[in-house]
């Protein structure tokens, strides 16, 4: 099994609080995306809504995935004032959240 | 916000049951990876262990991500006998699981 050198995927799953508007979610998503420009080790960002058909999404409705050059880069991001400010805002709007970091690993079978 | 045309990411987060061995997890991971060869619309697969530092992973320890060419491709995968057999085996070993499908969308800010 081959672990990619250095790259770390940072995955956030969430269910927003009831009453949040689509406009507020869009603003939060844009705020998340802007971190790419503000925090050097954050290399890319994408997001999406759950479209699963197996009914195993456990109520989570949105995913946000960003990519970092290393675990040191994630640590720099976590401590960065722009992230701290955004995280405080973002987390005030969520009912539940999971944040999961991993080094993508492929398998030769 | 730009949704990629067609591609669907299929994300599975899990915590395996206590007592499962590293060897069993490796066998399950290889079995998951083999589905790429067995189910045509499943285009790629990678996995990883949680290395997060924010303590928001909610006990989840492993992630498995596969990519499909479309939602129709995911439906074909879900119904495929090779997937059904593997899912029954895999799910018998997990304490909890989330399966989340989404169309990756980028944001221009």
TrEMBL record, chains A, B:
InterPro entries per record: Dabb, Dimeric_a/b-barrel, HS1/DABB1-like
Entry-linked Pfam families: Dabb
PROSITE patterns assigned to the protein according to its UniProt record, in alphabetical order: S_R_A_B_BARREL
GO annotation (BP), single: pollen tube adhesion
Positions of the Stress-response A/B barrel domain: 8-102
Highest taxon in the source lineage: Eukaryota
Subunit and partners: Homodimer.
The name this protein goes by in its record: Stress-response A/B barrel domain-containing protein HS1
Taxonomic source organism: Prunus yedoensis var. nudiflora
């Amino acid at each position: 099994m081959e672990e990619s050198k250095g790259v770390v995927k940072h995955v956030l799953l969430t269910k927003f609080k009831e009453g949040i508007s689509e406009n507020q979610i869009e603003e939060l998503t844009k705020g998340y995306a802007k971190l790419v420009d503000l925090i050097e080790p954050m290399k890319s960002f994408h997001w999406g809504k759950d479209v699963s058909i197996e009914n195993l999404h456990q109520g989570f409705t949105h995913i946000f995935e960003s990519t970092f050059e290393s675990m040191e880069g994630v640590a720099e991001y976590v401590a960065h004032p722009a992230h701290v400010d955004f995280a405080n805002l973002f987390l005030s709007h969520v009912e539940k959240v999971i944040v999961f970091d991993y080094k993508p690993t492929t398998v030769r079978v």
